[in-house]
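Quick one, tokens below:
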């Protein structure tokens, strides 16, 4: 059976008023269920791309399809139902007085049956490990907890695509690890029903994705699987990207593992082979 595309962007051109071109004949297709990492320099247009996809900005030319429907004024409600967005700064995305209210707000907007609402709120807060915080004011939470609530609010709306625009950038290592672990759990649970688009500067994070694309000068500078990308030191350096620690370490070994590995896998591989 042919795979459906979650997103199909074709020859998109975009510039802010009087500004330089941000996207130039930009094309990108994302199959349903893919975990895509989008990387690139500050100002390369990653956040602009997210905003275009949600119809918050309008392209000068080109076409975007979300599950085969061309993005337009008429399809915008459909498109926004399919795509959930989590930003970098958790403080800009709360509207409710409590954590539970905040999740409820999005559901009310979607006119969900009030009888079913509480169950959904309970379920998504449990999914992100924030059940005990339901009655807390969002501004009393830590950054990582806020990001988990932001993710819960998005999950409550059951989008088929979640865009995380540097959603872990402000978190400490533990907070970041918790969010990444949650994403892996969600991906394992929803499989092809969840397409993840993760904008990031962090290569350890990009290593979790199925595919990494790099934006440069309004186009794709590369389109690779993480393992293959991390072999290309020069390309990474040009884009100002650091190779993940495990990849750098593996490369420095006299005998190298064949696959991209995380820390635990690399440790297991090293001890199993007793090198
Ligand atoms: N509202 C705006 N008006 C004019 N120019 C803008 C506007 N928003 C962004 N830009 C410019 O467009 C370019 C792309 O910005 P964008 O925020 O998409 O980059 P980015 O890849 O997300 O960068 P970062 O990694 O820093 O988040 C930048 O040069 C930025 O200054
Ligand atoms: Mg950005």
């Amino acid at each position: 059976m042919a795979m459906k595309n979650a997103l199909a962007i074709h020859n998109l051109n975009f510039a802010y008023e009087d500004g330089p071109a941000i996207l130039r004949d930009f094309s990108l297709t994302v199959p349903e269920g893919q975990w895509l990492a989008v990387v690139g320099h500050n100002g390369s247009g990653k956040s602009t791309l997210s905003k275009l996809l949600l119809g918050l900005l309008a392209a000068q030319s080109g076409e975007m399809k979300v599950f085969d429907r061309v993005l337009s004024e008429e399809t915008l409600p459909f498109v926004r139902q399919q795509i959930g967005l989590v930003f970098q700064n958790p403080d800009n995305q709360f509207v409710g007085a409590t954590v539970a209210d905040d999740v409820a707000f999005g559901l009310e907007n979607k006119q969900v049956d009030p009888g079913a609402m509480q169950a959904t709120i309970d379920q998504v807060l449990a999914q992100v490990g924030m059940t005990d915080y339901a009655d807390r004011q969002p501004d009393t939470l830590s950054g990582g907890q806020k990001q988990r609530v932001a993710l819960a609010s998005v999950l409550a709306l059951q989008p088929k695509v979640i865009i995380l625009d540097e959603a872990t950038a402000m978190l400490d290592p533990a907070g970041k690890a918790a969010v990444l672990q949650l994403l892996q759990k969600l991906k394992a649970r929803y499989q092809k029903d969840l397409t993840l688009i993760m904008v990031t500067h962090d290569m350890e994070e990009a290593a979790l994705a199925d595919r990494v694309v790099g934006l440069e000068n309004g186009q794709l500078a590369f389109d690779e699987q993480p393992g293959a990308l991390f072999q290309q030191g020069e390309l990474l350096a040009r884009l100002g990207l650091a190779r993940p620690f495990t990849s750098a370490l593996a490369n420095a070994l006299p005998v190298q593992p064949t696959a991209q590995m995380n820390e635990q896998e690399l440790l297991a591989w090293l001890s199993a082979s007793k090198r």
